[in-house]
């Protein structure tokens, strides 16, 4: 084995010219040949690197591992990890430790009988020397199922290579990295479980399958992980329907590593508890009962904080509705709001929620096989849309009863069924504990966060309620951009500003250290609303959503046509109207490939809509907050579902999402009671969006608004009869929906000069 410093020197200077591509090995797509082919290919990748160029150490060490140059790989890893040693984040301190364990174990095989023997010795030496927080991050990474995604990624790489004689350097690096990860986790996975249990036994007291009684005679199941010792500590509780044993234990371990008691509670019927599994309906009372039980335990100091994301972000709000005395603080990410944004938003039901009950209630864990059967669910959407059958027939078309979904769609109003699940109106006034929510601008990132925030401060002015929001999707809104190997760089085609790259799980412990232990406030919380301005690469802070903008720029719908679109005019037009006709019975678009959809995209979906475009902006303009609108219109039916989507059209002809809004017109005034429209009568709708946006639009860009009717395979279709929408069918479509938007209509967009 060559000395590491010599290898790194040669890697930097040996190749006088940077290779643009590498020849594809003839046998690389033959799985059986990979152990022979890949080490040679990795060596050729190393030899092809440019002279004098900065080392891409992350690619280099993986190639060195595949080539069998374990000492060289460790030298590269040492360079990568040296700047991380004193980082305050345990996730950063633990970065690349799995590769270090693998390389050191491979080197030690000569002194040991097998890799497994060497690995046990190295694991105990390396992981055992770490503090609890860093060890938890390292072990969480090892206990995660890394093999499946690595194997899938490798198979995709190999499939893409068929018929290709050459590979780009980027593709070569990816192939080498995916091959290394697949082979590494094959050998680490089976050996790690016992070692992880052994390490946990030295650090934590673990109680599994603890049953806790509820006041109505049911039981819930809990996992408890406590740092070793008999101290009384505050508890961090996640209460969830997602019974993934590995993921829950990793979360509980991480809480314990931060000097809390980590408790994972499950919806009744899940895990070790018995009874019917019913999403949403019992979680608030059951979580409150578990909190009361926790507070009575000898290891509890009487303070409980709740956290979670998505469904698990709903449960802290459901528990807060019950006001258990020991609940002192909550932090939620992209929280679900039953009846607010799931399974319907704007009182319009989503098809993608249909498979979710099968995922969560058909066994005591999770039914991944059924839930991930994309072909089945895509076919269901297609067949339902093509058939024109009523929405309530989804389960009949699918062929499997779905009583939970049927129960949901029988409540299109935000009625007492939904109101019983989370705080409603004056109930928010009684929530005095501090709250931190995290959310994203895109897709499911917002969750119902803005709803919870708006209602809390409306009914309890001065509430200790904070929001962190940035360019995140549903999952990043819960955890931030941080991963085991670094930050996520993009979200759906959009490159994330460096300032927005944060670890929200680290903020979690800073928040609870502040609210439960008296530590300083997390530094990112400069005010109640903390938001990253996309395109400006800066965080800003405001005391309220309204204060995110200093005013509103009003843009009017104009009948003037320019460049195949209507004008979105800064001055009120003298008159005119814009007609939109949508044939709700037309299903010729069932297999249409719709353009656009990414956060940053070259295309734009204008299906069943009209497009409005402003003049080019004269200067950079920040748009932060919620937009609102006033539509003056005439329609020939008693109801319709509509959507308003806003974009920045950049000077290089790309569309950047700002914010969408959609709703059933009959619920704009009141989500609890339906108010049907008057066909043939001029009337108006006033609305306010529910999804925050913040972006620095560049001078020369244009604003684009697409106003469309909801008609697609993925959402409920409103045929406009005024009857129960889930019972309407294509036979109710009759004449096309005709909407006339009058030119006095406008959008108010929140701007900061």
Structure description:
The structure is a single chain. The protein is an alpha+beta fold. The protein is 32% helix and 24% strand. The protein has 22 helices and 32 strands. Strands 19, 20, 21, 22, 23, 24, 25, 26, 27, 28, 29, 30, 31 and 32 form a 14-stranded mixed beta sheet that branches. Strands 3-4-6-5-7-8-11-12-17-18 form a ten-stranded mixed beta sheet, with helices on both faces. Strand 5 (233-240), helix 11 and strand 6 form a beta-alpha-beta unit. Helix 7 (115-128) crosses helix 10 and helix 9 packs antiparallel against helix 10. The chain starts with a helix and ends with a strand. Mean pLDDT is 94; it is low at 1-18.
Summarize this, please?
This protein is α+β, with helices and mostly antiparallel strands. It is built from 22 helices and 32 strands.
């Amino acid at each position: 084995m060559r000395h590491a410093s010599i290898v790194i020197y040669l890697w930097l200077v040996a190749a006088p010219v940077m290779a643009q591509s590498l020849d594809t090995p003839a046998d690389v797509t033959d799985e059986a040949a990979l152990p022979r082919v890949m080490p040679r290919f990795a060596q050729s990748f190393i030899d092809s690197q440019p002279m004098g160029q900065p080392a891409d150490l992350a690619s280099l060490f993986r190639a060195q591992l595949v080539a069998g140059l374990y000492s060289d790989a460790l030298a590269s890893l040492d360079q990568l990890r040296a700047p991380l040693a004193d980082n305050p984040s345990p996730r950063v301190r633990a970065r690349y430790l799995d590769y270090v364990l693998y390389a050191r174990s491979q080197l030690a095989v000569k002194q040991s009988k097998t890799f497994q023997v060497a690995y046990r010795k190295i694991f105990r030496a390396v992981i055992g020397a770490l503090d609890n927080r860093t060890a938890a991050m390292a072990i969480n990474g090892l206990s995660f199922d890394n093999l499946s995604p690595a194997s899938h990624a490798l198979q995709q790489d190999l499939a893409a290579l068929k018929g290709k004689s050459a590979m780009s350097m980027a593709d070569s690096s990816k192939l080498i990295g995916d091959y290394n990860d697949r082979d590494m986790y094959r050998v680490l996975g089976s050996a790690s479980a016992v070692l992880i249990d052994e390490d946990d036994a030295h650090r934590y007291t673990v109680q599994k399958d603890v049953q806790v009684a509820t006041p109505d005679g049911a039981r819930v199941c809990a996992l408890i992980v406590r740092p070793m010792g008999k101290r009384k500590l505050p508890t961090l509780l996640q209460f969830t329907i997602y019974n993934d044993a590995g993921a829950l234990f990793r979360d509980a371990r991480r809480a314990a590593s931060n000097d809390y008691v980590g408790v994972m509670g499950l919806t009744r019927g899940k895990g070790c508890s018995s009874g019917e599994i019913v999403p949403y309906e019992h979680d608030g009372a059951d979580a409150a009962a578990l909190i009361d039980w926790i507070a009575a335990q000898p290891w509890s100091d009487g303070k409980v904080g709740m956290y979670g994301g998505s469904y698990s972000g709903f449960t802290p709000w459901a528990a807060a509705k019950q006001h258990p005395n020991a609940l002192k603080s909550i932090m939620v990410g992209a929280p679900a709001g039953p009846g607010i944004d799931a399974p319907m938003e704007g009182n319009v039901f989503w098809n993608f929620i249909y498979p979710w009950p099968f995922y969560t209630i058909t066994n005591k864990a999770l039914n991944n096989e059924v839930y991930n059967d994309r072909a089945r669910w895509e076919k269901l959407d297609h067949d339902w849309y093509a058939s024109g059958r009523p929405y309530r027939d989804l389960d009949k078309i699918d062929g499997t009863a779905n009583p939970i979904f049927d129960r949901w769609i029988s409540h299109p109003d935000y009625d007492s069924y939904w109101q019983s699940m989370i705080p409603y109106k004056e109930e928010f006034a009684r929530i005095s504990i501090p709250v931190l929510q995290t959310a994203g601008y895109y897709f499911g990132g917002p969750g119902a966060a803005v709803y919870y925030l708006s209602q809390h401060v409306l009914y309890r002015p001065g509430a200790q309620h904070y929001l962190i929001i940035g360019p995140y999707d549903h999952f990043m809104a819960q955890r931030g951009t941080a991963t085991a190997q670094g930050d996520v760089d993009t979200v759906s085609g959009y490159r994330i500003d460096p300032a927005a790259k944060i670890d929200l799980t680290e903020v979690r412990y800073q928040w609870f250290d502040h609210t439960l232990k008296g530590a300083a406030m997390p530094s990112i919380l400069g005010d109640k609303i903390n938001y990253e301005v996309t395109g400006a690469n800066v965080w800003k802070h405001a005391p309220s959503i309204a204060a995110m903008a200093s005013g509103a720029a009003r843009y009017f719908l104009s009948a003037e046509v320019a460049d195949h679109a209507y004008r979105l005019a800064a001055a009120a037009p003298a008159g005119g109207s814009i007609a939109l006709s949508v044939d709700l019975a037309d299903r010729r678009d069932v297999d249409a490939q719709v353009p656009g959809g990414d956060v940053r995209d070259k295309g734009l979906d204008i299906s069943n809509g009209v497009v409005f475009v402003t003049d080019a902006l004269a200067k950079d303009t920040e748009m932060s907050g919620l937009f609102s609108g006033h539509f003056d219109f005439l329609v020939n039916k008693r109801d319709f579902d509509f959507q308003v989507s806003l974009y920045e059209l950049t000077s290089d002809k790309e569309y950047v999402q700002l914010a969408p809004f959609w709703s059933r017109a009959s619920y704009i005034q009141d989500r609890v009671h339906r108010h049907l429209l008057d066909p043939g009568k001029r009337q108006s709708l006033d609305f306010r969006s529910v999804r925050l946006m913040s972006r620095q639009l560049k001078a020369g860009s244009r604003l684009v608004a697409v106003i469309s009717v909801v008609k697609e395979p993925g959402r409920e279709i409103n045929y406009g009869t005024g009857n129960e929408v889930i019972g309407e069918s294509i036979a109710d479509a009759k004449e096309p929906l005709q909407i006339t938007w009058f030119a006095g209509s406008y959008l108010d967009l929140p701007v900061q000069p």
